[in-house]
Amino acid sequence: MTTAEIDYSKLSGLELLRTAMNLPDRPPFIGDLLGMGVESLEYGNVVFTLETRPDFANPLGSTHGGICATLLDSVMGCAVHTTLEAGIGYTTLELKINYIRAVPTSGRKLTATGTTIHVGRTTATAEGRVVDDQGRLVAHATTTCVIFR
User: Out of 49, 101, 110, 142, which residue is the most buried by the measure of CB atoms under 10 Å away?
Assistant: First the structure.
């Protein structure tokens, strides 16, 4: 099956993500730029990974906070998306991140987990955590998403 053959409006959020991420000609997403890998897509829970690299550096030489912010926004938003019915959209309304430790740009694997807290009619909340390859907390976040019904 190809992207052109799928009617995404008929798929639940979870079905859409699982289908799109496994197509050989899948639609591009922000994860392509950062090299994100999809580890798990479950109802209300999503896990993505990436490896740091030199072009992720901030002026101090460690991984820029925007990398973790993008990773967290992605897993939390997708966690919300997995709970939505077919044809329902969402977007990030608010994002709050706490950075705990610096991450080198030398190929460190980061694993981000996003989990829904509440999914209502017009808003949803989720939390996310990023850990490094030693299991240490790098950053954690919460989000509020607006749901378009």
Answer: 110
> For residues 115 and 62, what is the distance between their CA atoms, to the nearest angstrom?
27
- How many distinct helices (H) and strands (E) make up the chain? 3, 6
β-sheet with 137-148: strand ranges across: 37-42, 45-51, 109-119, 123-131, 137-148, 89-99
Q: What is the pTM of this model?
A: 0.95
pLDDT tens across 69-116, in order?
999 999 999 999 999 999 999 999 999 999 999 999 999 999 999 999
Class of domain 3-148: alpha beta
Q: What are 3's two structure tokens? A: 């992207």
Query: Do 88 and 143 form a contact (C-beta atoms < 8 A)?
Result: no
- Burial class of residue 138 (count of CB atoms within 10 Å of its CB; 0-12, 13-18, 19+): buried
* Radius of gyration of the chain measured on its C-alpha atoms: 16
Give the closest residue to 84 by CA, choosing from 31, 112, 120: 120
89-99 and 45-51 beta bridge pairing:
unpaired
